[in-house]
Amino acid sequence: MHTVSVYDQKKLQLLHEIETGPNPKGLCEISRWGRMVLVCLGSDKGEVRVEQYGLSRSKLIKAHDSDVACVALSNDGRLLATASTKGTLVRVFDTSDGRLLQELRRGSEGAEIHSLCFSSDTKWLAVSSNKGTVHVFSLNIGTDGSQEAEQSILPKYCSSKWSMAQFRVPEDIKHIVAFGHQKNTVLIIGMNGRFYRCKFDPIGGGEMTQMDCRNFLQPLDSEYIIV
Q1: Which Pfam families does this one have (predicted)?
Q2: Nearest to 178 by CA among 105, 120, 102
Q3: For 124-147, what is the HEC assignment?
Q4: What's the CATH architecture for 3-215?
């Protein structure tokens, strides 16, 4: 049986068990502040389950036709980003009602999505994959979550939104992305020990500027290499 177990942190008592489909990556996200929202896989392929504990409400979202490969919640639990094993599209949903708010295109070729991350103000979404490019997407979503899903009469390939900023990292190495405390900065750390701090232009976009690069797997008595 595939389950997600929810415990009371203080009493260590089991509160809830959720049955899911196969979940070899252990995909599960919890909102960091605000309302208590948990996201995990649903029972069917491409499905995610949203549990809103403060509202005692559960929602199943058919996010993709393929298996879900990566999920992320905004800090307040209002927005959900998902990517499938195909890796070409990232979709952003409203967790309260399951509406598709925005569809983002990472690329035209398949990829393995390694990491998704919302900025704290939910204006940006960062995405990393095994293709060696970190993307930053602009999110056109109101702070109250009232914006309707984007509509377009164009074919899906054309109507999906492309990234506005990019940064190159070595291919086929897993990289995790996050937003820095400094405005318009992205932090990237790879499984090879390499750390990058980059800045993107929120208006012009394009290639990000590298501000720092360090290798944390080097001996402690050696100097960091900054390139």
Answers
A1: PROPPIN (PF21032)
A2: 120
A3: EEEEEECCCEEEEEECCCCCCCCC
A4: 7 Propeller (2.130)
* Residue 50 dihedral angles phi and psi, to the nearest 5°: -115, 120
pLDDT in tens, the chain (227 residues): 588 888 888 888 898 889 899 999 999 999 978 778 999 999 999 999 999 987 778 999 999 999 999 999 999 999 999 999 999 999 999 999 999 999 999 999 999 999 999 999 999 999 999 999 999 999 988 655 544 444 443 345 446 899 999 999 999 999 999 999 999 999 999 999 999 999 999 999 999 999 999 998 876 544 544 44
Handedness of CA 144, 146, 151, 156 (dihedral sign): positive
pTM value > 0.70: yes
Half-sphere exposure of 71 (CA within 13 A, CB side): 29
Q: Is 145 exposed, middle or buried (0-12, 13-18, 19+ CB in 10 A)?
A: middle
Spell out a b/e string for 21-54, using b for 16 or more CB atoms within 10 Å of the CB, else e. Answer: beeeeebbbebeeeeebbbbbbeebbbbbbbbbe
Nearest in space to 32 (alpha carbons), one of 136, 126, 139, 118? 118
Sign of CA dihedral 18, 44, 77, 51: negative
**Cβ–Cβ contacts within 10 Å for residue 83, how many?**
28
Instruction: Return d(Cα 28, Cα 4) in angstroms, integer.
Output: 8
Rg, the chain, Cα only:
18
